[in-house]
Amino acid sequence: MITDRSVFRDDWLPDVQHREAEMTVLTDALTPVLEGDRAEDVLLHGPQGVGKTVLTRAALDRLNRQQPTPSAHVHCLGASTAGIVRSILQELPGSDPARTTPQEELIATLQERVSEPTVVVLDEGDDLPETDILDVLRGVPDISWIAICHDEIDWLSRVDESIRHGLTDRSLQLDKFTTSELTDILEARQRVGLEGGAISREQLRMLADGAAGVARRGIFALRAAAELATERGHTTIEDVDVEDSFDRARRQLREQALESLPLHHHILYEIIRRKGEVRTAAINDRYEAIAAVVYDGRNQTPISKRERRTKLQKLVDYNLIGRRDEERKRVYWACDRSISSPLDLQVPVP
């Protein structure tokens, strides 16, 4: 029933629908490149799964069709300044620095390498304020950046005032889709990825409604419905397949999200998953008690309480853990305790 699985992957680039105003803002920011000038910096923010990365890739694709432009797309979650600079260089032609190259040398190489307008996409950039990367990129006159994060207010509160001021007109929010809009998006995907007549418009609307405006959730549910229909020997997707698709899609989304996260998030997640409902103080106590064991032999070191709060927020954003406040205390729990970290953490059982 599925004829093209690439349609359901995050790296598939569709025709962007229902983001015309946002696309205009983003392409306007990139327009100076057409005159040989540096593009404007942009902060793109919004909930998980609403198409921030897709919109950015589509805008760069449109720019490249008019004027081929060097660019780098870097996943920044958990990365250091040196790691981000190294990743940028690896995506630009003519450079592949070793992992042991010192940060100062990496920055110098970047300054030498970039001699024309270049766009750097800083994806999953919620941790960027904890690094010096924005200052580094400001030191390269031809580089502009698009930072992608979830929470605009939190992100801006942690960066330099000059950066906040420069983003006054270039902070772009993406909201969730309406049910009708998401139905259109799913319909476009199924035309390419499924056999003709495999699913009805009304069933697509059911999927869109269940996805609550989150495109990635709807796309995963569409694939899950097709998989279930195939496994059950149905010739087309039936309503029962749609109804059952959400549990499978939810688990697949959580597994993919957890796999994409760096080490620190996995440690915090495993502490919460193994303990059940747990307060912040207990998480911190457990983290500090096991840190020497889980970080032993790794190239990373334990993080501060403030950094842990940022990581916990990311786990909430990814729907991996839940959170509530009670009696001025914050309580966390794993949304699906059957999903464990794929990393071999050897976290001691509490």
Question: Can you walk me through this structure?
Answer:
It is a single chain. The protein has 350 residues and is α/β, with parallel strands linked by helices. The protein folds into 3 domains: 155 residues, P-loop containing nucleotide triphosphate hydrolases (Rossmann fold); 80 residues, Helicase, Ruva Protein, domain 3, CATH 1.10.8; 74 residues, Winged helix-like DNA-binding domain superfamily/Winged helix DNA-binding domain (Arc Repressor Mutant, subunit A), CATH 1.10.10.10. Helix content is 49%, strand content 11%. It has 14 helices and 8 strands. The strands form 2 sheets. A 5-stranded parallel β-sheet has the order 2-3-4-1-5, with helices on both faces. It has a 3-stranded antiparallel β-sheet with strand order 6-8-7. Strand 7 and strand 8 form a beta hairpin. Helix 3 packs parallel to helix 4 and helix 8 crosses helix 10. The radius of gyration is 22 Å and the shape is globular. The mean pLDDT is 94.
Short description:
The protein is α/β, with parallel strands linked by helices and 350 residues long. The chain is 49% helix and 11% strand.
CATH topology of the largest domain: Rossmann fold
Question: What is the succession of H and E elements?
Answer: HEHEHHEHEHHEHHHHHEHHEE
Tally of DSSP β-strands: 8
Q: What's the CATH superfamily of the largest domain, by name?
A: P-loop containing nucleotide triphosphate hydrolases
Proportion of helical residues: 40-55%
- So what's the CATH class of the largest domain? Alpha Beta
Structural class: alpha/beta
CATH architecture of the largest domain: 3-Layer(aba) Sandwich
What is the 3D form?
globular
Taking the sheet with the most strands, its summary is:
5 strands, parallel
Report the span from N to C terminus. 46 Å
Count, helices: 14
Spatial extent as radius of gyration:
22 Å
Which sequence of strands runs across the widest sheet?
Answer: 2-3-4-1-5
**Amount of beta strand:** 5-15%
Mean pLDDT: 94
Number of domains: 3
Q: What are the segments in which pLDDT stays under 50 over at least 5 consecutive residues?
A: none
